[in-house]
Amino acid sequence: MPEGDTVHKIANALRPPLEAAPLASLWLRDRGDLASFTGAVVEEISALGKHLLIALGPRHVLHVHLGMHGKWFRNRPGEANARADRSAVLRIETEADRFTCARAPVAELLRRADLAAHPVLARLGPDLLAPGFDASRAVVRARRCDARSIADLLLDQRAACGIGNVYKSEVLFAEGIDPWTPPARIDAARLAAVYARARTLMQGNLGGWRRTTVRPVRSGDAWPLGLPRLFVYGRAGEACLRCGARIASRLQGDAARTTYWCPRCQPAGSPASIDVSASSTASPRPHRGAR
After folding, report:
1. Which of 87, 89, 129, 215 is the most buried (most CB within 10 A)?
2. What is the spatial distance between Cα 79 and Cα 101, in angstroms, rounded to a whole number?
3. Could you tell me if 66 and 1 are in contact, meaning their C-beta atoms sit under 8 angstroms apart?
């Protein structure tokens, strides 16, 4: 499932060709061609956590959630794209482009007036990548959640939205927190630091490169051969880039999502902070079997 940084990158890519562009056609799988929107202008494209919002004129908004398998495709009008067309859920055409969203579980047309009562959107916490994100506000909302562990809390979009399974594991490693720590054991200042760290890591991945938390990336930089891009996620059984211990993994939470962590850097029962910022700028050592 795309995380917040990916959805923001999609929004950034869609803005230049779509914002202020009048629509030539709009099609939704559950509603067919919507002729009344021909000529409507795309006023704004924004990301809210893992959700994409496309404002059409003053009264309507397209809401897209890509889920596990959704993708966007860009083609010229009339250009065939069998992969996109056979599983399309939304199609937006302008005079110059055709954008197709395929395999997304949510692609719906909403009235702006109904957004405040939407069963999902209305419950979302602040977007971690929004200008002026306030971590203290996320902490207040987090204290109202009933998560059993800090890992479950980070996935709860009601506290702050945008964190998915990758950042869940990477943030907790960066902060040296055992993923099974009950949220009540983490004080407000420390919890705010966790959300601030998540924001920093996500901001570092808004460019055109593959997601990484191991070291800063600038566009055009070559990635060192054999160096993993993530500290713990997807690296079960491999050596921790910080201490050399073997990365562990286990299913966690009601949704049984896989959590990755370093048992040595994130000791059980201890939310004590470590600092990976130094190692992330000093090129952690590669090792065999890195992926």
Report:
1. 129
2. 15
3. yes
Q: Are 286 and 197 in contact (CB under 8 A)?
A: no
Residue at a domain's end among 123, 155, 173? 123
CA atoms within 13 A on the CB side of 110: 22
As a whole number, mean pLDDT of residues 177-200 equals 96
The C-alpha atoms of residue 137 and residue 139 are separated, in whole angstroms, by: 5
- For residue 51, the cross-strand partners are 48, 65
pLDDT digits (tens, 9 = 90+) for 194-207: 999 999 999 999 99
Q: What pLDDT was estimated at residue 48?
A: 97
Count of domains observed in the chain: 2
**Rg value, the chain, Cα:** 21
Residue 279 confidence (pLDDT): 40
Who's near 16: CB < 8 A, 6+ residues apart?
none
Is residue 240 assigned to a domain? yes
Q: Read off the pLDDT of residues 89-120 as tens digits, 9 standing for 90 and up.
A: 999 999 999 999 999 999 999 999 999 999 99
3-state SS class at 148: coil
Q: Are 186 and 271 in contact (CB under 8 A)?
A: yes
> Are 74 and 140 members of one domain?
no
Residue-number span of the structural domain to which 261 is assigned: 135-281
Residue 7 pLDDT more than 80? yes
Q: Residue 288 falls within a domain, yes or no?
A: no
169 and 53 share a domain? no
Residues belonging to the active site: 2-3, 50, 257
d(CA 124, CA 161) in angstroms, rounded, equals 6
